[in-house]
Design a protein that fits this description.
The protein has helices at residues 5-11, 15-23, 30-48, 62-81, 90-108, 137-140. The chain is elongated and about 75 Å long. The chain has one domain. Helix content is 54%, strand content 0%. With 144 residues, the chain is an all-alpha fold. It has 6 helices and no strands. α3 (30-48) packs across α4 (62-81) and α4 (62-81) crosses α5.
């Protein structure tokens, strides 16, 4: 995950009181916040993973970690606002839209991750070995 519950507490305008409204419980439900963080992280990995092999631990890449945390928080915030009937602030929509557009641009190769050169996804290959084929054209010739 690219963000923590504490990051979300600091990011959400109104802090823990606003989180209580967004999760529907006082004090706020940390499991709901964690689920939103996991969803945002999954979205980021799905988009960015097309071009980069993201490390599980980004602490060795502080600029990248901060960048991914901000993208994640943009997506977490809209996810939490989507749970309530209140009017979603336009800034939340705008930030989430911008995050999605940036992720799409990164996936398409039109934008790059900060420090992403070290993370370029390799075009790995697979090699399969096994016993001799049982059914070949020569063995099946004339059977059909």
């Amino acid at each position: 995950m690219f963000a923590t519950v504490a990051d979300v507490e600091q990011r959400i305008e109104g802090g823990t009181d606003a989180l209580a409204v967004l999760t529907g419980v006082t004090p706020y439900d940390a499991d709901v916040v964690t689920a939103a963080i996991e969803g945002a992280s999954g979205t980021i990995v799905a988009w960015v993973g097309r071009r980069y092999a993201l490390p599980a631990d980004t602490s060795a890449y502080p600029t990248l970690a901060a960048f991914l945390r901000e993208l994640s928080l943009d997506l977490v915030e809209i996810s939490l606002w989507g749970r309530v009937r209140e009017q979603m602030p336009q800034r939340v929509k705008d930030k989430a839209d911008a995050a999605r557009q940036l992720l799409a641009a990164i996936a398409a190769g039109e934008a790059a991750l900060p420090g992403g050169d070290a993370l370029e996804a390799s075009g790995g290959s697979a090699q399969v070995t096994g016993s001799e084929r049982v059914f070949t054209r020569q063995k099946m010739d004339g059977m059909f």
